[in-house]
Amino acid sequence: MARPSLLLLLLVSACAALAIADDDPMARSAALAVADDDPMTRRAALAVADDDPMARRAALVVAEDDPMVRRAALSVADDDPMVRRAALAVADDDPMVRRFERWMGKHGRAYTDAGEKQRRLEVYRKNVELIEEFNSGGHSYTLTDNKFADLTNEEFRAKVLGLGAPGRAGRRAPRREDFAPVAMPGKETENDNSTVPKEVDWRKKGAVVAVKNQGGCGSCWAFAAVAAMEGLNYIKKGQLVSLSEQELVDCDAEAVGCAGGFMSWAYEFVMDNHGLTTEASYPYLGVNGVCQTAKLNETTVSIAGYQNVTANSEPDLLRAAAKQPVSVAVDAGGFVWQLYGGGVFSGPCTAGVNHGVTVVGYGETSTDTGDEGSGKYWIIKNSWGAEWGEAGYMLLQRDAGIPAGLCGVALLASYPVM
């Protein structure tokens, strides 16, 4: 029972030694040197050595066996290149630090200061632990340390989810009853899919523009609707043109730009405006801007209207997706969406939809994946850049035995018509 008291005494002694050595850098260095046998004292010494490069260097020397001290050393070493080099040298036996440095280089990540970098390292460390634990479970898909791996799940959700915000003009959100049964082309009986192809991939047919990136703007609703309109324009006119999401973010007065909206609002804006201009003419900025009214007359692609797919009906969604890309809403808020790496996604997720994406086809794996459900899937085009998922796409399990579809994919599906 005497050991805690001794540690406290050493800690107080080290702090006192450094405090009275305020005018003598050599004394501070010596204080660090005599702390060699006690990790707690070394940590305290390092903490008060922030204003003395020599003391910090000495702290790194005695920190070889203490990961906590090494991390602290890195955080206080921001303004001293020699200390940074030494910190990297003594961190050589911490694989996570080296992995994080490689990850930062790959994704071009830079932080405002060493303290923020240290915080992000710890978030990254926890996410990697989640990834490794999940991937050891034999699921139908894998997770990876993608570009969102230094974000907590709360930060991730705040950054990229933008479906469902109330409109500026008080416009109500689409309701499920709006998605009542409709006469779907080729529909003979409730679950008759005998007339649709076994698989469709609109990417291979040339109807899908390259994956885009919404950035930190909650404009998923605009990207989901635009991808569906780009696909329809190609199918009807043979022209694959990248259209402007920024025009919708800036000019659709019913939505709230980066704070959210619905795909149906995007379609209605294009109908009322008699078209939408190109991305080249009105490029994406990822922030709310002032509407460039002169661009509203540059109507490159127009639509006659849009059609809601019957809610809670994956068979109807299948028939629609066989004919063109379809905008859908999903629950993408879980860490498994955040860190998705590839494979047929089988959950967990809910029917509480919060993100807009586009179904650009469907298919099934050659073999069943086992007890997680069928190998059938939707091809989901996301708007988080090509660094996420399977080059920007997800394979989402289809026919999972859930009325709303996995992640609510069959709740609020809609597509434009010409």
TrEMBL record:
Residues in Cathepsin propeptide inhibitor domain copies: 100-156
Domain Peptidase C1A papain C-terminal residue range list: 196-417
Signal among keywords: yes
Organism: Hordeum vulgare subsp. vulgare (Domesticated barley)
Protein name as annotated: Uncharacterized protein
Cited PROSITE patterns: PROKAR_LIPOPROTEIN, THIOL_PROTEASE_ASN, THIOL_PROTEASE_CYS, THIOL_PROTEASE_HIS
Pfam families assigned to the protein according to its UniProt record, in alphabetical order: Inhibitor_I29, Peptidase_C1
Keyword Signal among record annotations: yes
A single Gene Ontology CC term: extracellular space
Keywords assigned by UniProt, alphabetized: Disulfide bond, Signal
Biological processes annotated in GO: proteolysis involved in protein catabolic process
Protein family (similarity comment): Belongs to the peptidase C1 family.
Extent of the signal sequence: 1-21
Cited InterPro entries: Papain-like_cys_pep_sf, Pept_asp_AS, Pept_cys_AS, Pept_his_AS, Peptidase_C1A, Peptidase_C1A_C, Peptidase_C1A_papain-like, Prot_inhib_I29
One annotated GO molecular function: cysteine-type endopeptidase activity
